[in-house]
Amino acid sequence: MNAGLRDTDPMSIRTHLTAAALLLATGLSTCAFAAPAAPTPGTDLRRKVPGDVLRAVQSTLPDGRRVRRALLSPTFDPNLAVSAPTSVEVVFLWDAASFRNAFGYFTWRAGGASGSNIEILDRQLVFADASRGALRPGDAVKLRDADGNVRIFEPGTRIGFFVVADGAGLADSADLADAPSTDPKVNAGLARGVFTTLDALNPEIAAGQPGKARHIAMLSMPGRAGFLKGQPFFVMGMEDARRDAGADQDFNDLVFVVRSTQVDALSDTHVITAAPDVEGDTDPDGDGLHGLQDDFPEDASRGTVASHAPTTLAGRDAVPVPVATEQVLDAAGAVREVVATFHRDAQAAAEVLTLPGLPADARGTVFVERFLDTGEHVAPVHARLEGFLQPTAPGEAALRYPRLFRAGEGGETRVIVRLDAPLPAWSAKRAFPWRLEGAPAAFHGPRKLPATPLLPQVWTLRPGR
Length: 465
Known about the structure:
By secondary structure, this protein is mainly beta. The chain has helices at 10-24, 51-60, 184-189, 203-206; strands at residues 45-46, 80-81, 88-95, 102-111, 117-127, 139-142, 158-164, 194-196, 216-221, 233-238, 254-260, 272-273, 304-307, 311-315, 318-329, 335-344, 352-359, 364-372, 377-384, 389-393, 396-401, 411-423, 435-437. The chain is elongated, with a radius of gyration of 24 Å.
């Protein structure tokens, strides 16, 4: 049966992390988690984790903040690719989860003409309880085979990791013996969900939301003096809640380090590299933005995001509604997209969305995406921008987009104006004045203001698809 929630409440968890952050902020690069000589039972050894390593990891995966977009880019693959015989070591850093998780690894291969048929070759539990109640920071273990022997992975092996949310009590369960499954529906039904480094296996796929199926943020780090003999390593942060059902999306529910004991034996692993001067995939799209500087490493036309404080959709015939606005910039700082995200109640469809101040000759695409209060994700629709432009002044026009809703559709709505060419004259420092107009009783305001606009599935859309 499912394990109950741990007896540590969220406030005490945050207090613990805040204290750790304050300790790290002192600038003492030699500080480390206190580490007694004896390892925790079930692990191989205890490693001291230097303060500069902890600071680097915590700055990349800060608690309570949405993970950097670059780390979730489909350009990168958060699965290990073995290029030489090696064993693999995992070092536990911390967890910020609200319940106790089980953690393990699996090996897999992709078959079929498109490589979309996933076959899991074997799976092993690494930590039956991957939480601070059972582990201490620095606890390390080498991955083992079914007989308990340290495993030597051969070239060509693909290694993935998985977490069973709230699964610490399932270590001896027959259900866990087949986790993860190659069926996302099965993974959705065990404990609070089984989440893996393979997007195609995660529960969000079964829910029809592939853009929210990534559950691990992975970063290649250069070697640090006093840690793992100065050898490079990978940092992995996992999100242990469904991203289509209330996850905080900070990807630090379980944070650990992975390294090969044979140097460079994971050289084929394709992930983002922390330091631009380190050999690796620092600028995949060639736009001049390297590493974590590029929020969209798969797209040279988009580089970074400028967010703004919430404003309101002030309309003549509608109640003012909070709206989150953002602009997507290219590497040169020119605006390429303007985004508005807001929430409305289910009422009669009478609204018209407008955006004044566009150049009269602007060309591009308007995308509208909805996440209804019922939990349904309405497939994004798109239309050419120029078909909705109306002149307002010499050289200027306003986007006027009717039919924004259908009757009975309440929930989160995201509207994206994607430009065919950059507009250097536009400033990313101001929020554009979106307006919502409609029948007097058609809009009753939001239940909430979305806290996480620009969800990843928006950025996979292309005109004509």
